[in-house]
Amino acid sequence: MVSKVKEFVNEQQQVLSRQARKLGRAPGKVVRTAAARSAEGIKALREPVRVVTHSGVKLTNVSHEALLGLMALQLEVVTSALSDAASQLERVAQADNVMDLVRGQADELRATRDRVVTDVKRAVSIVRDAGIGARDVATETYTKVVKRGPAARRAAKSSRARKAKRAVRKTTTKARAKTRR
Q1: Cβ neighbours for 104, distance < 8 A, ≥ 6 positions apart
Q2: Is the CB of residue 125 less than 8 Å from the CB of residue 69?
Q3: pLDDT at position 137, please?
Q4: Angle at 145 between CA 141 and CA 146, to 5 degrees
Q5: Residue 3 confidence class, pLDDT cut points 50, 70, 90
Q6: Rounded to an integer, what distance in angstroms lies between the CA atom of residue 26 and that of residue 29?
Q7: Alpha-carbon distance 117 to 101, whole Å?
Q8: Which of 4, 59, 72, 90 has the smallest count of CB within 10 Å of its CB?
Q9: Distance of CA 40 to CAs 18, 35, 43, 45, 171, Å?
Q10: pLDDT, position 146
């Protein structure tokens, strides 16, 4: 009876040692596979990050151009307002009677109204162009990053799978070589 118990214990010890070896190898394999997948995921982020960065530069250029246009328009508005004020004061100084003064003021008001309408149209045009530019940049970025074609996704997946299989084969071969030594 004692010998049967010892035999049973030895058998169980052998089974447990085999399982321990299998489990000892498996975590390394799992970790290697996870590391390979993580590396692929990080590599896959290179292109989207590059595209988003370039889009940021393009968007900065669009906003910079819009701001320059608006600042140039503001300069023209202020300059023309100052010129109009100076010409009105000259008319007041040169007017012989009140009728001439009123006619000059009426003409000046019509010119000012036309100038304001033109300036507003230019400001709206500048802002509209900036909006179109921002939309184009956003559309291009979305297309390049999110709407990759299915063929590109399949190629990336198959490439990832081949690399993972190759990594597993290499590590398995190395492990076998070590156990043989």
Answers
A1: 88, 91, 95
A2: no
A3: 94
A4: 110
A5: confident
A6: 5
A7: 24
A8: 4
A9: 33, 9, 5, 9, 17
A10: 85
Please name which of 121, 118, 123, 113 lies closest in space to residue 84, comparing C-alpha atoms: 113
pLDDT tens column, 18-33: 777 776 766 677 667 7
86 alpha-carbon distance from chain centroid: 50
Q: What is the DSSP string of the chain?
A: -HHHHHHHHHHHHHHHHHHHHHHHHHHHHHHHHHHHHHHHHHHHTHHHHHHHHHHHHHHHHHHHHHHHHHHHHHHHHHHHHHHHHHHHHHHHHH-SSHHHHHHHHHHHHHHHHHHHHHHHHHHHHHHHHHHHHHHHHHHHHHHHHT---HHHHHHHHHHHHHHHHHHHHHHHHHHHHHHH-
pLDDT in tens, 44-98: 888 888 888 999 999 999 999 999 999 999 999 999 999 988 988 888 888 888 8
- Cβ atoms within 10 A of the Cβ of 151, count? 8
Cα–Cα distance for residue pair 19/176, rounded to 1 Å: 17
List the structure tokens of 20.
Answer: 């321990």
